[in-house]
Amino acid sequence: REGPFPLILLPQFGGYWIEGTNHQLSGAPESPPTPAPSTRARLEGNHTAKIYRKHFLGKEHFNYYSLDPALGHLVFSLKYDEQEHLHLLLRTRARTLHDVVPISCLAEFPNVVQMAKLVCEDVNVDRFYPVLYPKVN
């Protein structure tokens, strides 16, 4: 197909990928793992995915992205909850930072860059750009 090409490639048969889940490619041979009798299965090991599922997935929230000269690509998610708190999740290549900030502690409502700096003071960008894809999680 000729350009312009989309910035987001969607799965061939629709749907979306959720970070921290086990995805199987169709047609790939699948062999079930055989745990040793003395080991217990660990169902959830990705702390970031657990935070995202608990506070953001399936709930109204906003996603933003930016490029920091030192930190690299940034993805920032924020959600306002009924208890007057902001849930902030900042993802970089190296780490993920999460914070909950009561709105009553803020003198004025911050912009997106200021909210990202509440989570990580090392953020050095002029602005974040909204993710404008209606089916993104």
From TrEMBL:
Q: Which GO BP terms sit in this record?
A: regulation of small GTPase mediated signal transduction
GO MF, one annotated term: GTPase activator activity
* Gene3D superfamilies associated with the record: 3.30.1120.160
Q: Which GO terms describe its cellular component?
A: cytoplasm; membrane
Give the InterPro entries listed for this entry. Rap/Ran-GAP_sf, Rap1_Ran_GAP
State a single Pfam family of this protein: Rap-GAP_dimer
Protein name as catalogued? Rap1 GTPase-activating protein 1
Species whose genome carries this gene: Nipponia nippon
Lineage start: Eukaryota, Metazoa, Chordata, Craniata, Vertebrata
